[in-house]
Recover the amino acids of this structure.
């Protein structure tokens, strides 16, 4: 059987995976804090019938290999952590990160997760939580039940304060921390706009907004996804054409096999 059939089939499978990644990017174009993914590919093993450097004659060596590749496979799906555009919402509990860093949240199973989705809410206990009810932690932020609704203030360096009855000035209630990773591309996507630490990402290290290497926080803004629609559509066209090319290679291999089978006629 011709190797080209399986080689081209691996190309079609890989481009299908590429389309899946692109489709997920496009479906999350309006997801706050979403970071686009990119499929990386690698060539597979090579069948070698002659190695470079083997003797051709007593005094000569072959200068090149005689080899043929066996196709392509997916090497990685990498998150691209470029900055997304900031969208003004004028909602006091919307907090965008401008620069590097993640918020730390507590997940329902008790584990910790990290997110750049700053669409926070205040729950019945006065805690700052995500849209899914995950509590902002380390440190948690809790507002007094009698605070003035429009008085919540978050400075670019993460200090949170509110105004309460009986006092003229805002009262500090906490500071927002940010967390960084040596290799954020190694984080595990857990869904619900949450990433999880892995051995590949390295351990999280903490800091405050405006510290060297950390971003700032912007109250009343949301960081939108960093998906560029035009770029993704171009990538989709390229993937579709590559899929078609591999399909054409299968048709060509099939035609060649048909010719060989019909030689006896």
């Amino acid at each position: 059987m011709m190797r080209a059939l399986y080689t081209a089939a691996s190309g079609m499978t890989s481009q299908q995976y590429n389309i899946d990644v692109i489709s997920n990017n496009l479906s999350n174009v309006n997801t706050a804090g979403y970071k686009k993914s990119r499929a990386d590919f690698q060539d597979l093993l090579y069948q070698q019938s002659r190695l470079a450097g083997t003797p051709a004659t007593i005094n000569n060596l072959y200068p090149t290999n005689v080899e043929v590749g066996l196709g392509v496979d997916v090497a990685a799906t990498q998150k691209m952590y470029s900055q997304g555009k900031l969208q003004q919402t004028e909602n006091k509990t919307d907090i965008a990160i401008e620069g590097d860093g993640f918020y730390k949240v507590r997940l329902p199973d008790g584990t910790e997760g990290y997110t750049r989705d700053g669409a926070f809410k205040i729950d019945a206990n006065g805690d700052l939580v995500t849209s899914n009810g995950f509590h902002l932690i380390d440190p948690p932020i809790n507002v007094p039940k009698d605070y003035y609704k429009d008085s919540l203030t978050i400075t670019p360096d993460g200090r949170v304060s509110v105004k309460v009855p009986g006092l003229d000035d805002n009262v500090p209630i906490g500071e927002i921390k940010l967390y960084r990773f040596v290799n954020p591309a190694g984080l595990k996507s857990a869904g619900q706009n949450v990433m999880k630490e892995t051995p590949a990402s390295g351990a999280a290290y903490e800091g405050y907004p405006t510290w060297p290497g950390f971003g700032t926080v912007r109250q009343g803004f949301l960081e939108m996804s960093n998906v560029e629609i035009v770029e993704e559509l171009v990538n989709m066209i390229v993937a579709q054409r590559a899929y078609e090319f591999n399909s054409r290679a299968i048709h060509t291999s099939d035609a060649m096999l048909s010719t060989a089978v019909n030689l006896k006629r």
Summary: The chain has two domains: 3-81+227-264, 86-219. Residues 86-219 form one domain. The first helix runs from residue 3 to 27.
